[in-house]
Amino acid sequence: MIAFFGMYDMPHAASAYDRLWSAIRAELGSGPDHLDRTTDPWTAWQSPDLVLAQTCGLPYRARLFDQVHLVGTPDYGLRDCPQGYYYSYIVRRKGEPRNIRELARHGIIAFNEPLSQSGWAAPIAHLANLGLRPAETMQTGAHLASARAVLAGHADYAAIDAITYLMWDDADPQVFAGLEAFTRTEPTPGLPFITSRTADPKPIAAAVTRAISGLSAEDREILMLKRFVKIPEETYRAIPIPSLP
Asked: Rounded to whole angstroms, how far apart are CA atoms 60 and 40?
Protein backbone atom coordinates (compact mmCIF):
# COMPACT_ATOMS: atom_id res chain seq x y z
CA MET A 1 0.00 0.00 0.00
CA ILE A 2 1.16 3.51 -0.83
CA ALA A 3 0.51 6.94 0.70
CA PHE A 4 2.35 9.77 -0.99
CA PHE A 5 2.20 13.52 -0.24
CA GLY A 6 5.23 14.53 -2.29
CA MET A 7 3.95 17.75 -3.82
CA TYR A 8 4.35 19.93 -0.71
CA ASP A 9 6.20 17.44 1.50
CA MET A 10 9.15 19.75 2.17
CA PRO A 11 11.82 18.93 4.78
CA HIS A 12 10.55 21.42 7.36
CA ALA A 13 7.00 20.05 6.97
CA ALA A 14 7.85 16.33 7.00
CA SER A 15 6.97 15.70 10.65
CA ALA A 16 3.66 17.53 10.29
CA TYR A 17 2.83 15.47 7.21
CA ASP A 18 3.71 12.30 9.12
CA ARG A 19 1.22 13.29 11.82
CA LEU A 20 -1.42 14.08 9.21
CA TRP A 21 -0.99 10.68 7.60
CA SER A 22 -1.12 8.94 11.00
CA ALA A 23 -4.41 10.69 11.69
CA ILE A 24 -5.83 9.72 8.27
CA ARG A 25 -4.71 6.12 8.74
CA ALA A 26 -6.31 6.00 12.19
CA GLU A 27 -9.58 7.29 10.73
CA LEU A 28 -9.46 4.76 7.90
CA GLY A 29 -8.42 1.87 10.09
CA SER A 30 -5.94 0.70 7.45
CA GLY A 31 -3.13 1.86 5.20
CA PRO A 32 0.66 1.85 5.15
CA ASP A 33 2.48 2.65 8.38
CA HIS A 34 4.46 5.49 6.83
CA LEU A 35 4.35 7.95 3.96
CA ASP A 36 6.32 6.94 0.88
CA ARG A 37 9.09 9.43 0.12
CA THR A 38 11.15 7.31 -2.27
CA THR A 39 8.81 6.13 -5.03
CA ASP A 40 8.68 8.10 -8.28
CA PRO A 41 5.47 10.21 -8.34
CA TRP A 42 4.10 8.64 -11.52
CA THR A 43 4.72 5.17 -10.14
CA ALA A 44 2.86 6.08 -6.94
CA TRP A 45 -0.03 7.78 -8.73
CA GLN A 46 -0.59 4.85 -11.09
CA SER A 47 -0.08 2.03 -8.61
CA PRO A 48 -3.02 -0.31 -7.94
CA ASP A 49 -1.82 -0.23 -4.31
CA LEU A 50 -2.34 3.52 -3.98
CA VAL A 51 -4.35 4.44 -0.89
CA LEU A 52 -3.88 8.19 -1.06
CA ALA A 53 -1.64 10.64 -2.91
CA GLN A 54 -1.55 14.29 -3.84
CA THR A 55 -1.05 15.02 -7.52
CA CYS A 56 -1.09 18.13 -9.69
CA GLY A 57 -4.17 19.21 -11.63
CA LEU A 58 -2.45 18.95 -15.02
CA PRO A 59 -1.22 15.34 -14.65
CA TYR A 60 -4.68 14.48 -13.32
CA ARG A 61 -6.60 15.87 -16.29
CA ALA A 62 -3.99 14.96 -18.92
CA ARG A 63 -3.26 11.33 -17.98
CA LEU A 64 -4.64 10.12 -14.65
CA PHE A 65 -8.36 10.91 -14.63
CA ASP A 66 -9.42 7.51 -16.02
CA GLN A 67 -6.90 5.55 -13.91
CA VAL A 68 -7.71 6.90 -10.43
CA HIS A 69 -10.55 8.21 -8.30
CA LEU A 70 -10.63 11.85 -7.26
CA VAL A 71 -10.89 12.04 -3.46
CA GLY A 72 -10.98 15.80 -2.85
CA THR A 73 -8.87 18.92 -2.68
CA PRO A 74 -7.11 20.57 0.28
CA ASP A 75 -7.90 24.22 0.81
CA TYR A 76 -4.93 26.39 1.83
CA GLY A 77 -6.86 29.59 2.45
CA LEU A 78 -5.20 31.74 -0.20
CA ARG A 79 -6.54 35.28 -0.26
CA ASP A 80 -8.84 36.28 -3.12
CA CYS A 81 -9.15 32.65 -4.12
CA PRO A 82 -12.10 30.20 -4.02
CA GLN A 83 -11.82 27.36 -1.53
CA GLY A 84 -9.59 24.61 -2.90
CA TYR A 85 -8.16 26.83 -5.62
CA TYR A 86 -4.65 28.25 -5.97
CA TYR A 87 -2.53 30.36 -8.29
CA SER A 88 1.10 30.94 -9.19
CA TYR A 89 3.26 33.92 -8.38
CA ILE A 90 5.24 35.14 -11.36
CA VAL A 91 8.63 36.16 -10.04
CA ARG A 92 11.60 38.15 -11.34
CA ARG A 93 14.82 39.35 -9.75
CA LYS A 94 14.48 42.35 -7.50
CA GLY A 95 15.47 45.42 -9.46
CA GLU A 96 14.47 43.86 -12.79
CA PRO A 97 12.74 46.73 -14.68
CA ARG A 98 11.01 44.72 -17.39
CA ASN A 99 7.27 44.04 -17.11
CA ILE A 100 5.57 40.78 -18.07
CA ARG A 101 5.17 41.78 -21.71
CA GLU A 102 8.84 42.68 -22.08
CA LEU A 103 9.95 39.54 -20.24
CA ALA A 104 7.80 37.33 -22.45
CA ARG A 105 9.13 38.91 -25.64
CA HIS A 106 12.80 39.12 -24.75
CA GLY A 107 13.42 37.02 -21.63
CA ILE A 108 13.75 33.38 -20.60
CA ILE A 109 11.07 31.73 -18.48
CA ALA A 110 12.24 28.98 -16.12
CA PHE A 111 9.70 26.23 -15.52
CA ASN A 112 9.77 23.03 -13.54
CA GLU A 113 8.21 20.63 -16.04
CA PRO A 114 5.70 20.61 -18.93
CA LEU A 115 3.08 18.68 -16.91
CA SER A 116 2.97 21.26 -14.13
CA GLN A 117 -0.18 23.33 -13.78
CA SER A 118 1.50 25.99 -11.66
CA GLY A 119 4.90 26.07 -13.34
CA TRP A 120 3.90 25.77 -16.99
CA ALA A 121 0.14 25.72 -17.75
CA ALA A 122 -0.76 28.68 -15.53
CA PRO A 123 1.88 31.11 -16.87
CA ILE A 124 1.21 30.02 -20.46
CA ALA A 125 -2.50 30.79 -19.97
CA HIS A 126 -1.61 34.09 -18.29
CA LEU A 127 0.58 35.11 -21.22
CA ALA A 128 -1.96 33.90 -23.78
CA ASN A 129 -4.55 36.22 -22.23
CA LEU A 130 -2.13 39.04 -23.05
CA GLY A 131 -1.61 37.76 -26.58
CA LEU A 132 1.87 36.48 -25.71
CA ARG A 133 3.95 33.31 -25.56
CA PRO A 134 7.45 32.91 -24.06
CA ALA A 135 10.27 33.74 -26.43
CA GLU A 136 12.63 31.31 -24.67
CA THR A 137 12.22 28.59 -22.05
CA MET A 138 14.41 26.70 -19.59
CA GLN A 139 13.27 23.47 -17.91
CA THR A 140 14.65 23.10 -14.37
CA GLY A 141 12.89 20.09 -12.82
CA ALA A 142 11.58 21.84 -9.68
CA HIS A 143 10.06 25.12 -8.51
CA LEU A 144 13.01 25.82 -6.24
CA ALA A 145 15.39 25.20 -9.13
CA SER A 146 13.41 27.65 -11.26
CA ALA A 147 13.71 30.29 -8.53
CA ARG A 148 17.45 29.69 -8.31
CA ALA A 149 17.79 29.95 -12.09
CA VAL A 150 16.17 33.38 -11.97
CA LEU A 151 18.29 34.46 -9.01
CA ALA A 152 21.47 33.34 -10.79
CA GLY A 153 20.53 35.17 -13.99
CA HIS A 154 20.22 32.01 -16.08
CA ALA A 155 16.52 32.83 -16.57
CA ASP A 156 14.57 36.06 -16.24
CA TYR A 157 11.24 35.04 -14.74
CA ALA A 158 9.32 31.99 -13.51
CA ALA A 159 5.92 30.96 -12.19
CA ILE A 160 6.04 29.45 -8.69
CA ASP A 161 3.15 27.60 -7.05
CA ALA A 162 1.80 29.98 -4.37
CA ILE A 163 1.74 27.28 -1.68
CA THR A 164 5.33 26.30 -2.44
CA TYR A 165 6.35 29.96 -2.38
CA LEU A 166 4.63 30.71 0.92
CA MET A 167 5.73 27.50 2.67
CA TRP A 168 9.36 28.03 1.70
CA ASP A 169 9.18 31.71 2.63
CA ASP A 170 7.85 30.81 6.08
CA ALA A 171 10.55 28.20 6.63
CA ASP A 172 13.50 30.05 5.09
CA PRO A 173 12.84 33.65 4.01
CA GLN A 174 16.28 33.82 2.37
CA VAL A 175 15.24 31.31 -0.32
CA PHE A 176 13.28 33.95 -2.24
CA ALA A 177 14.87 37.07 -0.73
CA GLY A 178 16.29 38.18 -4.07
CA LEU A 179 13.04 37.68 -5.96
CA GLU A 180 9.97 39.82 -6.46
CA ALA A 181 6.51 38.32 -6.98
CA PHE A 182 5.25 41.04 -9.30
CA THR A 183 2.06 39.47 -10.63
CA ARG A 184 0.08 36.23 -10.36
CA THR A 185 -1.93 33.88 -12.53
CA GLU A 186 -5.67 33.30 -12.45
CA PRO A 187 -6.84 30.80 -9.78
CA THR A 188 -7.40 27.22 -10.86
CA PRO A 189 -8.46 24.11 -8.89
CA GLY A 190 -5.72 23.08 -6.47
CA LEU A 191 -3.64 19.94 -6.19
CA PRO A 192 -6.11 17.08 -5.65
CA PHE A 193 -5.88 13.95 -3.55
CA ILE A 194 -6.42 10.74 -5.51
CA THR A 195 -6.76 7.03 -4.79
CA SER A 196 -6.58 3.91 -6.95
CA ARG A 197 -9.43 2.99 -9.25
CA THR A 198 -10.21 -0.05 -7.11
CA ALA A 199 -10.68 1.97 -3.90
CA ASP A 200 -13.81 3.72 -2.65
CA PRO A 201 -13.00 7.44 -2.42
CA LYS A 202 -15.90 8.38 -0.11
CA PRO A 203 -14.60 6.92 3.18
CA ILE A 204 -11.13 8.20 2.32
CA ALA A 205 -12.48 11.72 1.80
CA ALA A 206 -14.29 11.51 5.14
CA ALA A 207 -11.11 10.33 6.87
CA VAL A 208 -9.05 13.15 5.36
CA THR A 209 -11.67 15.72 6.35
CA ARG A 210 -11.69 14.53 9.96
CA ALA A 211 -7.89 14.28 10.11
CA ILE A 212 -7.40 17.85 8.85
CA SER A 213 -9.99 19.12 11.31
CA GLY A 214 -8.13 17.40 14.14
CA LEU A 215 -4.67 18.78 13.36
CA SER A 216 -2.97 20.90 16.00
CA ALA A 217 -2.86 24.62 15.38
CA GLU A 218 0.90 24.35 14.86
CA ASP A 219 0.62 21.63 12.22
CA ARG A 220 -2.20 23.45 10.44
CA GLU A 221 0.02 26.53 10.24
CA ILE A 222 3.04 24.58 8.96
CA LEU A 223 0.97 22.79 6.31
CA MET A 224 -1.24 25.83 5.59
CA LEU A 225 -4.23 23.48 5.66
CA LYS A 226 -7.69 24.93 6.32
CA ARG A 227 -10.17 22.30 5.16
CA PHE A 228 -10.89 19.58 2.59
CA VAL A 229 -13.31 20.36 -0.24
CA LYS A 230 -14.91 18.61 -3.19
CA ILE A 231 -14.19 20.04 -6.64
CA PRO A 232 -15.89 18.07 -9.44
CA GLU A 233 -13.81 16.09 -11.91
CA GLU A 234 -15.46 18.07 -14.71
CA THR A 235 -14.05 21.31 -13.30
CA TYR A 236 -10.51 19.98 -13.49
CA ARG A 237 -10.97 18.53 -16.95
CA ALA A 238 -12.48 21.72 -18.35
CA ILE A 239 -9.15 23.56 -18.03
CA PRO A 240 -7.28 23.53 -21.36
CA ILE A 241 -4.13 21.44 -21.63
CA PRO A 242 -1.32 23.70 -22.86
CA SER A 243 1.00 22.98 -25.74
CA LEU A 244 4.43 21.67 -24.84
CA PRO A 245 7.44 24.00 -24.62
From this structure: 16
